[in-house]
Amino acid sequence: MVHVLGAVRSPGLVTLPPHARVQDAIDAAGGFTRRADPAQLNLAQPVQDGQQVVIGSRNHPAGEVRNGSGGGPAEAGSAGEGAVLDLNGADAAELEELPGVGPVTAGAILTWRTQHGRFSKIEELQEVDGIGPKTYAQIAPHVRV
Fold it and tell me: Do residues 57 and 103 share a domain?
């Protein structure tokens, strides 16, 4: 089972046979949308159970394959790339390191957390002022509760 998100027609979990490739995961998620930019992905890369395949778009071309263990991306990258941040323990500086998050959005996340207590699921980020579908799609792969 692999989680496919980003510029695909049906983002979500897909079940794949053994020895499946990134392209198989994309096909199982309905294929690319018109906005997809898969240039940074190796479509022939094998995928494993629990991985996440992020499909970039023209506006946000950073697509990648991430391990499901929270241990970072499956492909080489910078030291912080793919790190999973705890939404309930992160401070403003840590939140600002997330893609698409600046000081205002980090403050809004902290305000939501103060008003509602802890995040019980990642999807609650969508309730934070200033986090729409695009920003959520950027942040979600990098956080946990």
Answer: no
| Residues 38 and 53 sit within 8 Å (Cβ to Cβ) | no
Q: Are strands 2-6 and 143-144 parallel, antiparallel or unpaired?
A: unpaired
CA distance 106 to 112: 10
40 and 90 belong to one structural domain: no
pTM: 0.50
Q: What is the pLDDT of residues 83-136, one digit of tens each?
A: 578 898 888 888 988 888 999 999 999 999 999 988 988 889 999 999 988 889
Helices (H) and strands (E) in the chain, counts: 4, 6
* Burial environment of residue 4 by CB neighbours within 10 A (0 to 12, 13 to 18, 19 or more): buried
Name the token pair of 144: 């946990």
Q: How many residues are listed for the chain in this entry?
A: 145
Tokens of 140: 């979600």
Question: Tell me: the pLDDT tens digits for 56-81?
Answer: 888 777 788 887 644 444 433 332 34
Q: How far apart are CA 41 and CA 3, in angstroms?
A: 15
Both 61 and 117 in one domain: the answer is no
